[in-house]
């Protein structure tokens, strides 16, 4: 089994009995705060499409949007544990991988799934990508008695689902 550990995340490239993936890790887990980022498309801050008909331009914009969404939660691409790619043509995957490789180091690749779809919600869109991340637990944010932190997340017993993730749901 090929495993790497980094701070709060563990990545398993090839679990025993499973062939190594190319450009992803089969398993990634961590402890901390769970962050889900909705599928992002190639729209700029004004809602205008970037790169009509150009998979590389769309992929770069999608990863920029993912970066901005992750930052809103205090996360970076180093915290991403799973990416799901929805592409209208698998021929766009090399452009997606190239854009991904510009922002994610090869030793920090998340688990990934790629799905070819018949269409996205607008015909000029070539891809949509969603991300899941896990942030390390914050230290020094007060007591761990279940009080709400400055981020709105509850900590302490009863705050999580028993998986190591803490959620914003009050117990």
Could you explain how this protein is built, in words?
The protein contains two helices and eight strands. It has helices spanning 55-72, 93-103; strands spanning 2-6, 9-14, 27-30, 32-40, 80-87, 111-116, 127-135, 165-166. Helix 1 (55-72) packs parallel to helix 2 (93-103). It is an alpha/beta fold and 171 residues long. Mean pLDDT is 84; it is low at 141-171. The strands form two sheets. A five-stranded mixed sheet has the order 6-5-7-4-8.
Quick overview:
Helices cover 17% and strands 29% of the residues. It has helices at residues 55-72, 93-103, and strands at residues 2-6, 9-14, 27-30, 32-40, 80-87, 111-116, 127-135, 165-166.
Order of helices and strands: EEEEHEHEEE
The value of Rg in angstroms is 17 Å
Total number of beta strands: 8
Helical fraction equals 10-25%
Mean pLDDT: 84
Unreliably modeled segments: 141-171
Describe the biggest sheet?
A: 5 strands, mixed
From the spread of the alpha carbons, the general shape counts as globular
Beta-strand content:
25-35%
The tally of helices reads 2
Provide the spatial order of strands within the biggest beta sheet: 6-5-7-4-8
Question: What multimeric state do the chains show?
Answer: single chain
Q: What class, by secondary structure content?
A: alpha/beta
Distance between the termini: 38 Å
């Amino acid at each position: 089994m090929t495993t790497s550990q980094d701070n709060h995340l563990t990545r398993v490239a090839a679990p025993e009995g499973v062939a190594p993936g190319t450009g992803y890790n089969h398993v990634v887990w961590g402890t901390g705060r769970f962050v889900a980022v909705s599928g992002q498309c190639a729209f700029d801050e004004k809602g205008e499409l970037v790169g009509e008909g150009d998979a590389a331009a769309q992929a770069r914009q999608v990863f920029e949007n993912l970066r901005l969404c992750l930052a809103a939660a205090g996360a970076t691409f180093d915290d991403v544990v799973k990416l799901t790619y929805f592409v209208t043509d698998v021929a766009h995957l090399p452009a997606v991988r190239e854009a991904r490789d510009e922002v994610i180091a090869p030793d920090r690749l998340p688990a990934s799934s790629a799905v070819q779809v018949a269409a996205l919600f607008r015909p000029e869109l070539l891809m949509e990508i969603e991300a899941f991340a896990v942030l390390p637990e914050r230290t020094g944010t007060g007591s761990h008695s279940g009080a709400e932190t400055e981020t709105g997340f509850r900590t302490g017993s009863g705050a999580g689902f028993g998986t190591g993730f803490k959620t914003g749901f009050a117990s």
